[in-house]
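User: SCP domain-containing protein, Rhodopseudomonas palustris:
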Amino acid sequence: MYLSMANGGAKLDPAAAASMISLYRHNNGLGAVTVDPALMQLAEDQSTAMAKRNKLDHDVKAPLAKRLNASGYPASIAVENVSAGYHTLAEAFSGWRDSPPHRANMLKSGVTKLGIAASYAPGTKYKVFWTLILASTEAPR
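Assistant: Predicted structure for SCP domain-containing protein:
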């Protein structure tokens, strides 16, 4: 959670992210989320695209719904947080928690899976670009 992603060899721990977000959701009366390999890849692709273009933007490649559809991911619910400039998972989480729209995404009812990524871009203003995708493949109730 406190490992700096602002270096080329850093590896994000998705299980730690799922644990942190699940605890936050639990404290707010919601269910846990688990790491989903397909969402991990989608988050990685988004973070990498932002880092390569030095641009913080949900739509840097395409809107989330289009990216999910193009990958064949059968999401019934999906939300995304992006950010840049945070060097650790703890910082990114705190930034999302303290931002009402990002907080609402982390506390989205019905999501059960997550993908998260941090891409390091040393020659950019922000250095680290983050993507968190929360989704469910279950039919909405």
